[in-house]
Every structure is written in structure tokens, then in C-alpha cells.
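Final report, closing paragraph on structural work. Over the funding period we assembled a curated collection of sequence-structure pairs, and we close with a single example.
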Amino acid sequence: MKFCSLYSGSTGNSLFVQGEDTKILVDAGVSAKKITEALTSIDVDLKEINAIIVTHEHIDHIRSIGTLANKYNIPIYANLGTWNGIDNEKSVAKIENRNYFKIGEQFEIGDLKINSFSTLHDAMDSCGFTIENDGKKISIATDLGEMTKEVSDSLKKSKFLLLESNYEPELLRYCSYPYPLKRRIASETGHLSNNDAGKTISKLVEYGLENVMLGHLSKESNFPELAEKTVLNEMLLNGIKQNEIELAVASRIEPSKVVNI
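Its predicted structure, as stored:
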């Protein structure tokens, strides 16, 4: 499999996953133009995308799904709660090519086997994904206020993980966000902190995790160097050496390198 974070952050999210003969996006939370440009930069034509799977209905994850679905006839996959949320978002065009999945039930798109798991977030029915192909497993877990047992168990045996590392508590405390937003971010239905990301990674290494990309960083209460340093420090505290895992940070403004799994 191949993975590329096209954009990941509080301003918009879209991820690319490729199997042997299948290419999908996870979310489309930036403009169709930006997604087209990002895909072109990694030598992928938007017309080659077989489907878009959606984690939840917040605008930074669904901004252009209506345009992409209707202009390019790309199937959109979401659970019922998320579809209800999408239908309430007036800025998203009505989508005809819609497909439904139930959280916890496997479905397939081409040669990719996809499972979903529930995440604690203030959305209708938010989820993360594990994607398998040819005996290899990658996982995507963002927008989760707390690392639950369900999420942790779902991530085990992943070779690659895109994991949220949204905020640094002290920066969140003093940043310009209004207090209600700060409280929301730090709540159990908000986002995952740098420290919690590091603790999660440390536990997953013993289950075969080899490669991690930190994603969905806040623009106001985090920055890439701090997220990486905090996660590495947490790993060291848990007895994980830096050379035991490959660690990178996804950008909110440009595609990551293409990761081969």
C-alpha cells in the first residue's frame, strides 16, 4: 500500500491511500482545486480515485465531497449518522452517489478491506479507519478526545498509523482561542494532545507499529517541532528508542512524502 497526507490540520483534512489497483481518499476537507493540485504533485489523477470514505461531518473533513462526488462521479462512503450531519451542512452540494457502512462491519473498495471504529468526538457518529491490503494494515485515527479501548484495540498490528497530535496543553491554555473552544478541544469529545499521542504510540510499538505520522495539528495551540519532540520524549519515558519507529509530522498546507507500506 501507499499513503500520503494531502492536507492534515485544523484548517482542512484529506488523505490518500492506494492498494494494488485501488485509490481512495479519506475525507475531503479542503477545496477540490487543492485536492487536485496535491494529487497531481504525487502523480495521481483525480479521475483515478475510486471512492472517498468519510470520518465525520465537520466541514474541515467534508468541504468538497459534494463537488468531487457530482463532478467526477466518485462514490462517497459514510455511516448513517455522518450522512445526516452532511445533509445538514448547507455549504455541501447534495450527493446522489452515496454509500453506507456500519461502524465495526468490514466493507471493501476494490482490493482494500476497510474497517471502522468509533471515536469520541462532538460529531454525529465519528469514526476512524483501518485499511488492509495483502496482509498489511494501516490505520487513521484523528478527532478523538480520548484514546478508548476500542480505538486502541483497533489500531493494534498496524504497520503504519496516522494519529492525531492536536494540541499542547500549555499552548492551548494561553492561545487566542475563546475559553469555550479551549474547553471543547481538551474535553473527552475534543482532540488528542501531544502527550496522549506519544503514550498511544509507545503502547502500539509492541504490536508491530513501525511508521507513524502525526496529524491534525492545531494552528494556534501546537506546531510540528513541538509535537514531534513531545511525542519522542513520551516514547523515551516508556522505554521506546527513537530508532525503533519512523516518525513524521503531516503538514496542513502541503502533501507529505508518499509512504510505502
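The radius of gyration is 17 Å. The chain has one domain: 2-260. We thank the funder for supporting this effort.
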